[in-house]
Amino acid sequence: MPQPLRVLVVDDETDVQFLFTQKFRREVRQGLLELVFAESGEEALEKLRGGEAADVVVLLSDINMPGMSGLDLLAEVQGEFPDLDVYMVTAYDDGELKTTALQGGARGYLTKPIDFSTLKEEVFGIE
Questions:
Q1: Cα-atom radius of gyration of the chain, to the nearest Å?
Q2: Which pLDDT value is given to residue 3?
Q3: Angle at CA 74, nearest 5°, toward 35 and 47?
Q4: pLDDT for position 1
Q5: Distance (Å, rounded) from C-alpha 16 to C-alpha 24?
Q6: Strand order of the sheet with strand 108-111?
Q7: Which residues form the Response regulatory domain (predicted)?
Q8: pLDDT at res. 127
Q9: What number does CATH give the domain 5-123?
Q10: Alpha-carbon distance 43 to 1, whole Å?
């Protein structure tokens, strides 16, 4: 059986973990997906550096968070984990912010509320 796709979701809103767990419960149960959560950019970096999030291949990060912003996290990840696919998530459909994120190395820019079927197919490659 192939390894599950490990995804690190970074968001300071605690309901995001519940939402992702609910939306992807079948894929997790089937062993297609493994979700790891962090509530800040700093916590995400700790998990990546400490090995708790080893083998993560996709990182989804909110942009607006207290402390380290998602864009700051993106810059850190690009420097330390260049093979990681980073997608920025925001409640604001802002063209300038999107350009900044993509020029900073993000693979994509998603707006809230997240379209989970698109996320599943286009980002995770799960049908």
A1: 14
A2: 86
A3: 40
A4: 57
A5: 12
A6: 33-38, 5-10, 56-62, 85-90, 108-111
A7: 6-127
A8: 78
A9: 3.40.50.2300
A10: 30
When the pLDDT of each residue in the chain is averaged and rounded to a whole number, the result is: 93
What are the Cα distances from residue 27, in Å, to 6, 40, 83? 12, 25, 23
In sequence order, what are the residues at sequence separation of 6 or more whose Cβ sits closer than 8 angstroms to the Cβ of residue 78?
86, 104, 105
The domain spans of the chain are 5-123
**pTM over cut 0.85:** yes
The average pLDDT across 18-37 equals 96
Are residues 87 and 60 in contact, defined by beta-carbon separation less than 8 angstroms?
Answer: yes
pLDDT at 117 over 60: yes
94, amino acid identity: D
In total, the chain counts a number of residues equal to 127
pLDDT digits (tens, 9 = 90+) for 41-79: 999 999 999 988 788 999 999 999 999 999 999 999 999
